[in-house]
Amino acid sequence: MNAIAAVTFSLDIDAFDDPNNKFVESFTGCFNGSLGFNLMMAFPNILKYLPFVEYPPKKIDNYFVQFSRSLLEKRRKQIRNPEELDFLDSWLESQKANPKLTDDLLISQMIIFLITGFETSAYALTFAMYLFATHPQMQEKAYRDVIENISDPDNVTFEDYHKMKYLEAAIWETLRLYPMDFVTDRVT
């Protein structure tokens, strides 16, 4: 969640050190195994026929809409360093060029980006850890790849990641074996 918020909105939400963070609480509330979430995962198009099931919960939905709206307003007033631009900056630039791109559409995009990034990253890491646990020799090779290619353990750089060829191959193999887009809607 920290990485998704940082890359998308340049936010440091501190999900690990502050579990009572309102952002973290609201976000994880979307995935807490509620009836609405379980129904949506099992039967994506059924919620519109069940008015008594609320997903996402209004309280959480309202929080994210309000949070996103205030972030949009704040970002429009900021002058940003061109080297530190994120997805939100790109969306705001697109909005200037295309007036049909309303704030509501941007907010929807922001929320979808968070949800899909969080879910797919969590699943990918879970399956990668499973594969490493069931194949200790691969885990050892990946570990050696990381140790040999990190120049400073306290400051891992983007260049360091590019040197880790075995780890990258392991991630790609995980995605091949366990694709992240596993929900398919059927529309008749």
From TrEMBL:
GO molecular function: heme binding; iron ion binding; monooxygenase activity; oxidoreductase activity, acting on paired donors, with incorporation or reduction of molecular oxygen
TM spans (from-to): 110-133
Gene3D superfamilies for this protein: Cytochrome P450
Keyword line: Endoplasmic reticulum, Heme, Iron, Membrane, Metal-binding, Microsome, Monooxygenase, Oxidoreductase, Transmembrane, Transmembrane helix
SUPFAM superfamilies per the UniProt record, alphabetical: Cytochrome P450
Reported cofactor(s): heme
Cellular location(s): Endoplasmic reticulum membrane; Microsome membrane
Membrane topology (UniProt): Peripheral membrane protein
A Pfam family: p450
Entry-linked InterPro entries: Cyt_P450, Cyt_P450_sf, Insect_CytP450_Detox
Any Gene Ontology CC annotation: endoplasmic reticulum membrane
Major localisation: endoplasmic reticulum
Family in the record: Belongs to the cytochrome P450 family.
Protein's name in the database: Cytochrome P450 3A13-like
Gene assigned in the entry: LOC100901752
